[in-house]
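INTERNAL AUDIT FORM
Audit reference: QA-55
Scope: verify that the stored structure record matches its stored sequence.
Auditor: D.O.
Record contents follow.
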Amino acid sequence: MRDPARILVVDDVADNVEILRMRLESLGYEVVVAEDGEQALESVRTELPDLVLLDIMMPKIDGLEVVRRMKADASLPFIPVILVTAKASQKDVVAGLDAGGDDYLTKPIDHGALVARVRAMLRIKALHDEVQALNHGLEAKVRAQVEELERVGRLRRFLAPQLAQAIVSAGDEKILENHRREVVAVFCDLRGFTSFSETAEPEDIMGLLAEYHGAVGPLIRKYEGTLDRFTGDGMMIFFNDPLPCPDAPERAAKLAIEMRDTMATLSPAWSKRGHRLGFGVGMAQGYATLGRIGFEDRFDYTAIGAVINLAARLCNAATDGQVLVSGRLAAAVEHVADVEHLGERDIRGMARPVAVANLRGAKL
């Protein structure tokens, strides 16, 4: 509410208007006037008064209709209305209050009653405005929180929760735009899954994949890897993007070894059910182009480049229980992993032999 409060006085009798104007202005209020109901409605919309003193008996549009239209207009803020009526017209008072009036005064107007009612109505107006401001603030806060949750939800499709939250908290998704960066790419899948899926029932396939994803998914989150995609039994994960991490090779190696060891505990149970499945991993380190791909409402975040192809080919070449890594990556993780150097090998899909190593386990 403004200070001083603005009061609209509506009466078709000039003397009545002048008396109310002088009394209210002597109390420090700003006063605007209207001579009939039509002017009153126009002034309410243009002046947005904090209070209206409204005579009931007026030409053109009477006070009852004015207050009805005011209260029905959703575009107007809350504006209290004090109805002014002849002393003997209690019927008009009841009708006015029923139409939406907030209080009333009878003519001739007692100065003490005028002051008390005006102050009371302005206090109500001030409290109402304060509540509205709080509500608007809460609405804005809720909208912001909903937007943040939606952004986190989108990012969580391919990022660890803590990374998604960090990006949202920073308020900037520019790091998801196309860019070039050195990453460690990790591919993994189940050995023998194709032949298994050709003979197994669909329900068995979905159940087994649920067990598989349930086992390795928490590990990806644990090491804060970026999950690119699922391709049936295959997964692609990379490190050092979209947020950089200085120990990307170490994280990738620890993840791969722990996934391999975790899958080794699942294999016996699968074997008892007649499912002969193994697990292999391929990893490489190098530069890739990364960014969002897709269309509205369905975006993914992916990496493209020779390092991705190399990691995928190493995964294809890995036998059950192997974690095959490129020579460069092997050199970077020797302090955290037991590395078995396998020399240069011809890898299907690669133009020249590639230095390859196998991670046998983590160093204690």
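Auditor finding: record pair retrieved intact. The CA atoms of residues 346 and 353 lie 4 Å apart.
Action required: none
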